[in-house]
Write a structure and sequence with these properties.
The chain has 8 helices and 9 strands. With about 260 residues, it is an alpha/beta fold.
Length: about 260
């Protein structure tokens, strides 16, 4: 058991959220820290231009699970983190299924090599935003359960009772295998066949998808055009008010946007 966190230490939670699940969990955790007397802020990863870490600062990182790992832009952010002097750092992910330890163990190694003190990792089961829809009652139950777990996780972090697993060999193997899936997704043929599509007869050219695409991969001229750098976060699908954007690998009827998300 490590030492409890000090309320004099500020907390910054950096997060990436595709369709809002991770954002509402990050905001709930920030609320829980604030209720415990901590100075806390939640910051979107795509809004970060440069990072300076105070010696006393507690860092949080939140992200969705995708292909049992997470998006390249999240890893780019992690790679750009400055070296630290044993700053406490916790992380959490949101997912509809399982992660198979493909991110938890490897992330711990990366952060330890940068000088951070990994103090806790938690997985939140949230409503799915790809492939399937679930009944409203189940969706609501998952969100309410995640908020309860957010409070429990924050209490564990503060008290020094949280944990961060690292399974030798298996964590590394799963990370390598899952990272290969994103390498495949970056290939021109994959982008041509599977990236998001736009039904231009439904599109009202509001430009929301252009402004909100975290990869800067959408442009609006005479019509909306999606480029070849799609990371498949499904934000454009969820945020389109005309439901004009859809994923080839997911039902056209799926336009999930987490309640109270403000991306």
């Amino acid at each position: 058991m490590r030492s409890p966190l000090d309320k004099n230490q500020p907390v910054t939670i950096y997060y990436f959220s595709g369709t809002g699940n991770t954002q509402i969990v990050a905001n709930k955790m920030a609320e829980c820290f604030a209720e415990k007397g901590f100075s806390v802020k939640a910051v979107r990863i795509e809004d970060v231009k440069s990072i300076t870490i105070d010696e006393s600062e507690i860092i949080g990182i939140g992200f969705p699970i995708a292909a049992c790992s997470t998006y390249p832009l999240v890893f780019q952010f992690i790679r750009n983190l400055p070296n630290a002097h044993r700053n406490p750092l916790f992380a959490f992910c949101t997912m509809a299924g399982i992660s198979l330890w493909a991110i938890e163990g490897e992330l711990k190694t990366i952060l330890e090599n940068k000088g951070y003190l990994p103090i806790g990792f938690h997985e939140f089961i949230m409503p799915p935003n790809i492939f399937a829809q679930i009944p409203e009652s189940m969706r609501r139950a998952r969100i309410e359960r995640s908020f309860l777990h957010a409070l429990q996780f924050v209490n564990q972090l503060i008290d020094g009772n949280s944990r961060w697993r690292k399974i030798p060999l298996l964590s590394r193997l799963m990370f390598v295998l899952c990272s290969a899936l994103f390498k495949l997704a970056e290939m021109p043929l994959h982008q041509k066949l599977f990236k998001m599509r736009v039904e231009n007869d439904k599109c009202n050219k509001c430009g929301i998808c252009v402004r909100k695409c975290p990869a800067g991969n959408i442009v609006l001229t005479s019509k909306v055009m999606i480029g070849d750098r799609c990371q498949y976060c499904f934000r454009c699908v969820g945020i389109c008010p005309a439901t004009a954007v859809f994923g080839i690998l997911s039902p056209k009827s799926l336009h999930y946007w987490a309640e109270n998300a403000r991306l």
